[in-house]
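Lecture 7 notes: from sequence to structure.
We start with the chain below.
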Amino acid sequence: MTAFIALRQASRRDASELAILADIASHGFASWLWFADVANGVSDTPLERGRLKMSEEEAVGSWRDAVIAEAYGEVAGVAIGHVLDEAIEDVEATIAATEPMLALQKTVVGSWFIGSLCVYRHLRGIGIGRRLLEDQIDRADRRPVSLITASDNEAALSLYGRNGFSEAARADAVPPFENSKRHAWVLMTLSAA
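Predicted structure tokens for the same chain:
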């Protein structure tokens, strides 16, 4: 069934699509983070800032770390992953809402970390997410694989659970707004192959 799905390494020209998909993967959290740079005059819109970040040449989590899935002649989804190296230990949260996620990441240094995995809604349920996840596991090259998802993201929790991931830890999310929906961040891991 997944023969029609093609994976390819992202290129810099995919930056806009990567920003959209990263924002969808984060349920708008990425846009919220990028908005701070709009307020500081770095860009005109959050999406423009996301595109700029995704087009950075050497940044962790930008186009060089991304794999694009294509189906039916269009971009269908993305996975963005990299080795979580010791440099994360020196990173300090500058925004309270990122603190719990950063603390969870620091517990899995040395693992392959999937920062984003997303499929456009109209193309979900046909194996694209699973294919992207399998590719990330292969890229881990026998390292443990880790990711963080929201406790209320049942589709993601189900996908990861079906593919051998288990909950390693969780931390209460710091809501960006007073009326934000309450949830926890769930660190899921897959043991080294």
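Points to note: The chain is about 30% helix and 25% strand. The helical segments are 15-25, 29-39, 46-54, 99-105, 128-139, 154-162.
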